[in-house]
Amino acid sequence: MVIDQATLKQFVQDIFGAVGSHHHEARRIAHYLVEANLVGHDSHGVIQVPRYVERVRARTLVPNQTVEIVRENEVLAVLDGRLGFGQVIGEEAMRIALDKCAKFGLSLVALRNSGHLGRIGDWAEMAAREGKMSILFVNTSGGGILVAPHGGTERRLSANPIAAGVPVKGGAPIILDISTCTIAEGKIRVAANKGVPVPEGCLLDGQGQPTTDPQAFYSSPPGAILPVGRHKGFGLGVMVEALAGALSGGSCSRPGTKAVSNNLLAIVIDPPRLRDQADFDEDLASFTAWVKSARTVAPDGEILMPGEPEHRSRLARLRDGIPLDATTWNQLQAVAQSLGIAGNQV
Fold this sequence. Notes:
This protein is an alpha+beta fold. The protein has 11 helices and 12 strands.
């Protein structure tokens, strides 16, 4: 089915209102989940709704929290998300980082114990809208262990995304948003819901054998995601664990808890504090034009900068609606009905 983004946002907002979120929080959760669908990252979109509701019911995700400032100075802050919804906690953390950066040209904020922060590219985009560059590292302590180390077959690391954003004068920002593993867990869930295989080279089954079956990831014993680029992705993942997990105080990936808490390290930079803004803009424009001028593999091919596919997807889905597979839609309906919401009227 295809559904209008405004209708889907209201549906999701109603669900989180029914589960206990205040109006502002329910609206922000709905905004960011549907935004992920709009930009084509369905793995981080409304497919997450049933899992969030399960976590609220299990009390591993707590509605209506705000960040606690553990320590801070003019440019640094350590924050605790108190297991609140990442769509609100992440926005608050970035607001603190941006305010500090606006005053001093640079900021570093470490956030621990947040609920799922969603699509990390959202936070890089938030910074870019205010003319700031950003680098973000995220790990998942406790229940989010998904990835095998290079040369191993069992889960030991989180997906460990890295995002970065660069503001572009007169255009969409350059946004890098990648995991240090071959595939996001949400994309495995999307494939399972659609009944399609995942790409080769992404997964191991519970016996440590390569597989394209998304269900093998959830079997017993469970499968594992492979690091991207073999040892290179593994090395990046280890560094993200240290930067986001150990440095924030939220911990590296480890067994012993079922709570899926995210930890974040955000570095925000104000470009004109380092060089003239016009020169910075011209440098980026010239570089982008040079990159795009490369001969393409396909005769009608096109080179897209990081963030351009998401920008185009957003325009298309705002115009045409958001496609949802039947399984995901049925799961949303089931959650809504369990909360007394007539989802079938959407």
